[in-house]
Design brief:
Elements lengths: L1 H12 L8 H16 L3 E6 L4 E4 L1 H7 L3 H4 L13 H12 L4 E9 L5 E12 L5 E10 L1 H82 L5 H28 L7 E3 L1 H11 L1 H6 L2 E7 L6 E3 L1 H17 L5 E11 L7 E2 L6 E2 L3 E9 L6 H4 L19 H11 L3 E6 L6 E8 L4
Bound molecules: adenosine-5'-triphosphate (ATP) and magnesium ion (MG).
InterPro entries: HATPase_C_sf (IPR036890), HATPase_dom (IPR003594), His_kinase_dom (IPR005467), HisK_dim/P_dom (IPR003661), HisK_dim/P_sf (IPR036097), PAC (IPR001610), PAS (IPR000014), PAS-assoc_C (IPR000700)
Catalytic activity: ATP + protein L-histidine = ADP + protein N-phospho-L-histidine
Organism: Eiseniibacteriota bacterium
């Protein structure tokens, strides 16, 4: 260690010709103290990669005593896969460059890798030529390990955070579902009481209406030579009674929507029948019909009359939305539900379940479409945007419970890309 020490001191001081007295001696002795007391490994390497000086901290950090390592190649300290660093480092030091805080891995004498932060500077002779490199190596293994652990904990933390977020989402979803179920229950209760009320009122009003109609017809027949005013008045009265009667009939339909008589039906032929029933309205409004019926539909257990009524209501709504013509597209298809959606889930309480095969019916128009305000009220009884005397606002209010009683769903929205509306009715493919 002594011989090595002498060499170390020369290199550390960067002065080879000190005479041991005067200010130079003081500088040199200060540098000696730094060399010996430093906590970081200090060592010098010749430009051909041989270790020429080695301090005590270097012995502690790398595990080699000075007398063993001095004269040995620096590559002893460098792992196989990092040997390329040696060449680049020595080349840049030889060019006079300094390297600061270069973090890398080196090997201890027992082969254990350690994390080090290296700072290397060239040392020069009196002519300013680079003669060797002086390296300061700080053992940062503990810091690195702590960082790696922090990284692992941070990954674990973000995993936990993601898990919590997923749980929160699921919680929110189930809260929303509970709310919507509550809403449906309230709505159903409301509809039921409206239904009962409607049935009572309808029965009370139907008979007086029949009497009035009879009286109008009687007058029309018995009045001799009625003037134009009288004819007009009688016609208006008849129309008013007929209209009142249609409202009453709507109410009755609405209140009796709970009773079904089902049998195995072919959805396509029900759609065809409904189209036949609205043919007159379609022709009158110059509406072109496109039929896209799937040929492989299995039969469905349906109440024929009621479902025809649903299809007719949807088609008439489409016609009404296209007063100056357009296209009515009627589609049927069989579909396997692949993904969860508004009515599709995994639980028994969901109307449809993922993986189930259903029959989808779409009635699409190129009409006005539906605005946001209308959308939320579509299925409300008596909600209509049609001029007074045109719609009763019961059409969809009747459709919804009918479809629901069949275990199906009905949704109405705008077509993708706008330019009209689309009603989608979905049935289970068969119900025992
Ligand atoms: N295809 C559609 N395009 C645009 N708006 C529609 C469509 N279908 C329904 N609507 C809107 O929904 C409202 C309610 O429809 P619903 O069938 O319940 O009643 P209505 O058609 O107004 O009257 P009713 O059917 O009793 O004669 C309509 O007034 C209309 O504003
Ligand atoms: Mg309608």
């Amino acid at each position: 260690m002594k011989g090595a020490g002498a060499e170390q001191k020369d290199v550390a001081a960067g002065t080879q010709n000190l005479n041991g007295s005067g200010p130079d001696a003081e500088v040199r002795s200060r540098l000696d103290a730094v060399w010996e007391l430093a906590n970081d490994a200090l060592f010098a390497v010749s430009l051909d990669g041989i270790i020429v000086a080695w301090n005590r901290a270097a012995e502690r950090i790398y595990g080699y005593p000075a007398q063993t390592i001095i004269g040995k190649p620096l590559s002893l300290l460098v792992p196989e896969d990092r040997r390329h660093e040696l060449e680049t480092t020595i080349t840049s030091i030889a060019r006079g460059a300094t390297i600061e805080h270069f973090e890398t891995i080196r090997l201890r004498s027992d082969g254990v890798p350690i994390d080090v932060s290296l700072s290397i500077a060239p040392t020069r002779d009196e002519k300013g030529r680079v003669t060797s490199a002086l390296a300061v190596a700080r053992d940062i293994t503990a810091i690195k390990q702590a960082l790696r652990q922090a990284e692992v904990s941070s990954v674990k933390l973000s995993e936990r955070e993601a898990m919590l977020r997923r749980a929160l989402l699921a919680l929110r979803k189930s809260l929303e579902e509970t709310k919507s179920t509550q809403l449906h229950l309230v709505q159903a209760a409301k509809l039921e009481s409206i239904g009962r009320l409607a049935a009572g009122v309808a029965h009370e009003v139907k008979n007086p209406l029949a009497v009035i109609l009879f009286a109008i017809d009687y007058l029309a027949e018995t009045v001799q030579r009625p003037d134009a005013n009288m004819v007009g008045a009688l016609n208006d009265a008849r129309e008013a009674v007929l209209r009142a009667d249609s409202v009453i009939r709507g109410l009755l339909e609405f209140s009796t929507a709970t009773e079904l008589t089902v049998s195995k039906e072919d959805v396509n032929s029900l759609l065809q029948k409904a189209l036949l029933l609205v043919r007159h309205a379609l022709t009158k409004s110059h509406i072109f019909v496109v039929e896209e019926f799937a040929s492989d539909l299995p039969p469905v257990m349906l109440d024929r009359t009621k479902i025809e009524q649903v299809f007719v209501n949807l088609m008439i709504n489409a016609v009404d939305a296209m007063p100056s013509g357009g296209t009515l597209i009627v589609r049927s298809r069989r579909e396997q539900l692949k993904e969860p959606g508004p009515d599709v889930g995994y639980r028994r309480s969901d109307p449809f379940r993922v993986g189930q095969t259903v029959i989808v019916i779409e009635i699409e128009d190129t009409g006005t479409g539906i605005d946001e305000a209308t959308r939320s009220r579509l299925f409300d009884p008596f909600f209509t945007t049609k001029p007074p005397g045109r719609g009763t606002g019961l059409g969809l209010a009747v459709c919804k419970p009918i479809v629901a009683l069949h275990g199906g769903t009905i949704r109405i929205g705008n077509r993708e890309g706008g330019g009209g509306a689309r009603a989608t009715v979905i049935f289970q493919s068969i119900r025992p």
